[in-house]
Amino acid sequence: MADPVILAVPKGRILEEVQPLLERAGIRPEAAFFDEGSRALQFKTDRPDIELIRVRAFDVATFVAHGAAQLGIVGSDVLMEFDYSELYAPVDLGIGHCRISVAEPKDMAAGDDPREWSHVRVATKYPHITARHFEARGVQAECVKLNGAMEIAPVLGLAGRIVDLVSSGKTLKENGLVEVEVIAQVSARLIVNRAAFKTRADTLGPLVAAFRAAAEELRDAA
Ligand SMILES: Nc1ncnc2c1ncn2[C@@H]1O[C@H](COP(=O)(O)OP(=O)(O)OP(=O)(O)O)[C@@H](O)[C@H]1O
Ligand SMILES: O=P(O)(O)OC[C@H]1O[C@H](OP(=O)(O)OP(=O)(O)O)[C@H](O)[C@@H]1O
């Protein structure tokens, strides 16, 4: 039998929303997959032709782009940041909804007009998205790359503004920040390695179709 297809899934907050999607797509992972306490990284499913790996969100795209995994589930924020030509993103899965935004301290926003910015210093996990956004606006942007907890940067003077994901707005609020510009809406996508999509079309074609149908069913049920 051919090697199993590897589906890369991000650990963390998306995992909960992935569960009904996998179920509807007809893939039942072994129990340890949904156990956040499990230290295993690779998991079997009830289908001998499909295995799962659980990796960091940004790394899902890397595994699939290099063909180490053939399929992945990843936020469109990650695809916007890396722009991998080896990836094909055929299905919007309708989960992991949030937006990527510019935020600044509440006090600063009171007397600030983003249309008047000429230079900004921004703390972010997304330096490429940030650079592209401000370049298109004709604003000179200096990025400080962080891997998390961007919200603490303005109060400590690391950068006046941040670019980060916002969903309920709770994280911004609790850190005295307000959203001043929305850069893009974000949701999770199914990604496929382009070369594998050709060489393993018999397995990957039906799987892409199953995820498309599962996402539509969940959208209709919502
Ligand atoms: N507040 C949110 N609401 C909805 N979706 C989100 C939210 N935050 C992140 N996401 C989505 O989930 C993905 C993973 O985000 P998460 O915050 O779990 O990553 P992380 O904890 O920074 O990852 P890691 O620490 O593993 O690198 C993001 O790429 C994004 O698409
Ligand atoms: O608007 P909210 O609903 O508050 O969500 C926004 C927060 O969610 C994400 O972080 P997450 O909780 O995934 O934590 P992490 O990035 O620190 O892992 C994001 O980086 C924000 O900090």
Describe, in plain words, how this protein is organized in 3D.
GO terms for molecular function: ATP binding; ATP phosphoribosyltransferase activity. Heteromultimer composed of HisG and HisZ subunits. It catalyses: 1-(5-phospho-beta-D-ribosyl)-ATP + diphosphate = 5-phospho-alpha-D-ribose 1-diphosphate + ATP. It is found in: Cytoplasm. Helices cover 33% and strands 31% of the residues. The chain has 222 residues and is of the alpha/beta class. The protein has two domains: 5-96 and 187-221, D-Maltodextrin-Binding Protein, domain 2 (3-Layer(aba) Sandwich); 98-185, 3-Layer(aba) Sandwich (D-Maltodextrin-Binding Protein, domain 2). The chain is elongated and about 65 Å long. The model has no long low-confidence stretch (mean pLDDT 96). Bound molecules: adenosine-5'-triphosphate and 1-O-pyrophosphono-5-O-phosphono-alpha-D-ribofuranose. 1-O-pyrophosphono-5-O-phosphono-alpha-D-ribofuranose (PRP) binds at residues 13, 148, 164-171.
Name of the CATH class of the largest domain:
Alpha Beta
Helix content: 25-40%
Radius of gyration: 19 Å
Give me the secondary-structure category: alpha/beta
The low-confidence parts are none
CATH topology title of the largest domain: D-Maltodextrin-Binding Protein, domain 2
Roughly how many Å apart are the termini?
Answer: 39 Å
Reported CATH architecture of the largest domain: 3-Layer(aba) Sandwich
How are the strands of the biggest sheet laid out side by side? 2-3-1-4-11-5
- Indicate the overall shape: elongated
Count of the domains: 2
Report the total helices: 8
What's the SSE pattern?
Answer: EHEEHEHEEHEHEEHEEHH
Report the sheet with the most strands, covering strand number, pairing sense and barrel closure.
Answer: 6 strands, mixed
Task: State which percent range the strand residues make up.
Answer: 25-35%
